[in-house]
Write the structure tokens for this entry.
Amino acid sequence: MLQQLIRATAIAAMLGTMAGLATAPARAEMVVVAAGALTPAEQQLVEQNPALTELAAGAPEALREALDQIATALANPSTSRGGLDDLDAADVKLLGQNPALLQVWRSSPEASADLLQLIRTAAGGTKPQK
């Protein structure tokens, strides 16, 4: 119960920072069908982030994990900050196209690395070796 409250609060705070982004009603239907029961805030988050929309369509179990990781990272920000220089071009592009992932990167680069790995793995990719 407490975890759900923290998740909902974190998502609501994040959505407040992203107000003004347009949503697509047609995609909303797809998300509900593909991902199962999402809260309205989670559904809006999925609609506004193409990587999450792809997870909803192709890997709904990974979507739930990604949403949980986003909520946890935003509820527990890190004291360290990462720069975009620490990322490869594909990750920079992914962050640029997905406001929620960028918000997690700003909040917790360590958590963001795990989230990016989850998204890559669900999409059939692997984590680049450094």
About this structure: Residues 2-122 form one domain. The chain is about 70% helix and 0% strand. Residues 1-35 have pLDDT under 50 and may be disordered.
